[in-house]
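Technical appendix A lists one of the benchmark inputs used to test multi-chain prediction within the project. The record comprises two sequence entries:
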Amino acid sequence: METIISVSNLTKVFGGKTVAVNEISFEIEKNTIFGLIGPNGSGKTTTQRMLTTILQPTSGTIKYKNHDLENGDINNIRRIIGYVPQGESLYGDLTIGENLDIFSRPFGLSNNKRQQRFDELLEKLKLKDRKNDLVKNLSGGLIKRVSIAVSLVHEPEVLFFDEITNGLDSTTRIHIWQLLKDLKKTSTIIFTTHYLDEAENLCDKIAIMFEGKILELDEPQTIIKKYKSKNLNEVMSQIISKEQ
Amino acid sequence: MNLLTIAYYELKRILRNHRLVLLVLSQPIVIAIIVGLIVFQDPKNINLGIVNNNKNEFSNQLEDKLKNNENFIIKNYSMVDDNEIKKGTLRGFIVIDINDTKPISGKVEVLNDPTGRSVKYIVLGEVSKAVIEVTKEIAIKNVNDDLSKQISKLSIPTELAPLFNTKIDLKSNLVDPIEFNDRDLTPFSLKSFDYFASAMMVLLIILAILNISSISITGERATGTFERLFVTPYSKIDVILGKAIAYFLIGVIITTLGTSSLYVIFSVSIGSLAMVALINLLVVATAVTLGLLVSSVTYTVVESAELAMYLFFISVLTTSIFTPIETANKYMAQVIKVVPFYYAVDASRRVNMADAHWKNIANNIYILIGTFIFFLLLSIVLLRREAK
């Protein structure tokens, strides 16, 4: 399979002393779902923020298929990625349509193409009737769907989801799982999550992070077998007790 | 043009928040009205006590003159009662001590309320005028008395005596040797409020614009939209310039409302309209970029609001709104000269009060343009993509 992201010896140090991510290396293959999992403070969000160009690495390299973050190719990388942050991260005082518009304008799509994409996404995410509603008046589940729609307008090759299902009810979670599986057909998905069942069901490959390091990097079932466990929850318990 | 998209939606978001719009737009009008009414006139109806220790022709004359002064409300006292000052009933006492002995002499003392600073100067000016007039009367009387005394010592033949029995009419025959006048060198007829009005035009813009623009980026950091914007190809220039355009347009409305209110309600002196507009637009641009700079370097909305208020008060104090720069400590005077808004208020006053034109205020304008560009560049450079 074709590798879309290569990460080598990636390190992030905050304030010269707090090592959030410590020389991690991994590769992500095209059209797969890659999960970054681990307890709070393990470095998964920092890793994702470096991959999405929000944070600059202290050292190490991140290479996208044809673009190198080190070579100042940052804008080209931003053109091929989509990012769904953990919080609402939308303009509450703009409508769904306006949010789609402001976040998609810099990608240089023609007006017709953008409108066509808006219609497709609103239809797909069952938001068509709410296009002119202000985001601040929507429920948590609807806001999450708008957030996903916003990140998809420019048809990104790589999609990042930061704890996307946090705080959502089980129905909405299942709906989002289905959506991720659909999106995998056209994009590569990288997501962080606290829900280990989610990672087990969805991910083709996971990286288990602890204190800034990757302790395990493989398919979920392979890791489960390696630890002779029933599921990832048990794997995580073993890892935490061993590391502490 | 990505920056126009940012500008358009920033403006849309502000205008959609009706309460914010009401607050921002009412601010210049309400504050202009309040300040205009507070600094409405030169001190009038000043309550004073008068103690006339030796009642005689000249002391009564002085007392009457002071009582007829339209600026004063005067009450007689038998002695100075400092409790009246402590209670705040009176702004001061005028103690008249004129002897009726020959030659006539005496003194007048003004005892001021230390809390009524600017009132003191009005009282001193008016009392001095009255004392000079009465002193002149006393001088004439002393000269005539002296002359009569000298004549009486002479052996004048009886038939010539009537010729010497008339008093010399010094009042109509002598003129003041030096005439002293002062006037403001301006074609405008100025009121005391005009000094403040020109400064208010500048400070109202800074207050309204600095407040709103300083929280624009930290506000977006808090909601997470900022992080999202920066995972798209929007650049730092797009974001800062886009926001600057939006706040500049809001600032233009604020400055128009503020200046019009001052002109329409209080008929403040306005010089060249083109110069006033140029100064105000540059103040808007400088305040907007200073606000964005504040927002770029702070981490939270509370921090931004605090820093903006801090800078606003520094601006107020260093623009010589209360006192001219000459009252400042020599080092502070140099510090004031690096505060850009000092040049804005200075230019505004010179245009509106002294009818200054382009060549007179060109340096101030260049300094404002330079500052605006400096703040703009600095806010772009210092804008951090990531949250703390």
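The two ends of chain B are 29 Å apart (CA to CA). Chain B has a mean pLDDT of 89. Comparable benchmark entries are summarised in Table A2.
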